[in-house]
Design brief:
By secondary structure, the chain is an alpha+beta fold. It is built from five helices and eleven strands; from the N terminus they run ββααβββααβββαβββ.
């Protein structure tokens, strides 16, 4: 079983760290990484994560689904392959996650999502025993519908909307993990819920 994280630009060291840790240890890199939240999503940096009792940027965010499924969902929804290609991800075996780290899954369901300006519903966060974790084998259909809608409107949009997230409070070792390009794994078929 694996979790996935986009390979950051200008990665320093062999461990992934939360944005709030970077803010203290490498303010320049922190400023670079938060540009994806500007201008409309800076509110997320102050958002509380229920059950973990910390901020959104106190945890590291991971995908519980192979990134190729996200890529194929985008392409099959009308996304241009040249726009979506060449995104690299760390493929991290869950055995590399520190036993002492606090881990949760953010279900990110459409039914309970109230927008970025509202708190996360408590029922959307579930603490997770990493030994019981199972990788998702399909992209939520609601995510594909979202892609189609946003592409038809010509909007800029988030790639992981309504895709569950794994939150880890702590550092994650990436030394010697495989790096994959989400557009190069043609043997994975897209499966919709």
């Amino acid at each position: 079983m694996n979790i996935y994280h986009a390979v950051p630009n200008n990665m320093i060291g062999k461990k992934l760290k939360s944005l709030n840790v970077l803010k203290k240890t490498n303010p320049e890199l922190y400023e670079q990484y938060i540009t994806k939240y500007k201008p409309n999503r800076l509110i997320l940096l102050e958002r509380m994560v229920p059950k973990l009792n910390c901020l959104w940027n106190d945890v590291i965010h991971f995908l519980p689904i192979h990134p190729t499924l996200v890529y194929k969902g985008l392409v099959e929804s009308g996304g241009k392959p040249e726009f979506t290609s060449n995104r690299l991800f760390y493929k991290i075996p869950v055995a590399k996650v520190d036993e002492e780290a606090t881990i949760a899954i953010y279900k990110y369901s459409k039914e309970k999502f109230k927008g970025i300006f509202n708190e996360i519903d408590n029922s959307e966060i579930q603490l997770l025993d990493i030994h019981r974790y199972r990788e998702l084998d399909s992209l939520p259909e609601v995510t594909v519908d979202y892609y189609r809608e946003q592409l038809s409107l010509g909007n800029k949009f988030g790639l992981y909307h309504f895709v569950p997230h794994i939150f880890i409070r702590g550092e994650v070792d990436i030394e010697n993990v495989e790096i994959i390009d989400w557009s190069e794994n043609s043997d994975i078929a897209i499966g919709l819920d």
